[in-house]
Specification:
Neutral Protease, domain 2; 554 residues; 5-stranded mixed beta sheet; Peptidase_M61_catalytic; alpha+beta
Amino acid sequence: MTGLVLSALWLMALPAAAQVTGPVTYRLRAVTAGENLTALELRVDFRLGADGRAVVDLPSSWGGGSHIYERLKDVRVTGAQSVELSGPESRVITGRPKAKITLSYHLEVNRTAGQGAPADTNFTYPVLAPDGFYITGPGLMPLIRDTDPKDIRFSWTLPQGWQGATNLEHALSTDTTDGVDQSILLAGRNVTVRHVALPTGELRIAATGHFDRFSAEAFDTAVATIVATEQTFWGDGPEHFLVTLAPTERRVDGRSIRGTGLGDAFAIVTAPNTDLTDLKTILAHEYFHTWSPVRLGGLDAGDAESAGYWFSEGFTDFYARRFALESGVIDGDSFVAQWNDVLLAYALSPHRTTPNAIVSEAFWNDPAAHQLPYQRGAILAALLDRRWRAQGRSLDGFMLALRDASRITPGAAPTPAPLLERLNKVALDYGVELDDLVQKHVINGDEILLPAETFGDRFTVVSTCLPAYDLGYDPARSRAAGYFAGVDPDGPAYRAGLRDGMKRIRVDSAGTGDSQDEITVETEGDGGAPLTLRFKPEGKATVCRQRLVRSDDT
């Protein structure tokens, strides 16, 4: 073993390291006490390049989480002459040219046996229990910079009697820039792995836990139908694909569904009492990520990535609903209901007219900003499709042209242009204009209103213009204080008789979510007498709310 010198120097600039030599081997080993998992140990072996130098990035930030490396225990590097820190997550390793290096660390169990994933999980952090684990690559895998994906090898050792599945069991795709972090790993005592044959190859469905309202067979059928529909659209698909399903902790409302696509796999966690209907469009969304954005040229790097979510998430939502309908896994009524949820949320969003740069900056910290790229992008996709079909083109044709223009020649280093530049170039080559609507509705944030005939003959968009939703007081401050605060003297609550400082006993609504809702306030009047006030939350501004209906219902 070569001696190691660990330096706490924070390097301000890192010259590029030569590509490491030969295979980079990742080995994951389950550590047990009796029959129970206590930890997972990861070991990565590789050789330095000709310059005797490599840079390793530990798991850091992903999915709204940060400082993931703090969960790694006993981080060690052997075979190096020195290891210097470049920020808390990066290691600059130097040694003899082609020296063998081993990086290792472990993760400890953080859940109890039989306990589902946290209901609010965003797949950011690994879930490890004595009887199984569920991990996405960004929460576990270190990346050795300048590694060729075809040189990556993976193996794992599971406890006796366990089953598991990961997309790392097959070679990484050569037509994307995916690394080993674009992976999903599910294993445990109660995991089942089922195989479904597809025209392009094999679909594996790995699941654990019990779900009250659907069977394994029904879930498998929905997944296989969606996968076949989307492969037909694109005319291709991965030879191997993995879908994983696991329960979260039980929720009373049943509405806890999280999905994420990574490489040739996607993961779903949901409450045990979730309906399968609620999952189907999410399944279509996540499988669409097999192509978008990774096979469409990707997004801009670093902090600029979220500025492209209107495309990677919004367009994906548009196609998820379309393919779910066309494949028959949802019916027309569900399609209408899902679109109306989006159109209402967009109309009521406080960020509806916020420029994209501000939305992007707030994406991970503001729930309303987090949802807007999905809403705005899907509505823009519908608008573009309607415009281009009137010109004899279509959004479908544009997406296929973008895929073809983004193909990576095996062995060639990708040099993608910025997202907007690539989209505009493909649009012009395809014979359509894109930039004007993107600048207007995404970059500048102008509101999008869809024409009535946007969805063709089967569905009609109906517009209703109403006063903007405005309670006329500050609901957050009022809840926290226990009395009403921020009452606007020119607002609807004031006109109904509400004043600053009145006791907040109870606030109810009819639940319509718009300015035609009826708000009921229970407070105290003069001398502490009970007082009930009712009003509509009608603000001064006007908002045009749109909704989708079946054309035969108009």
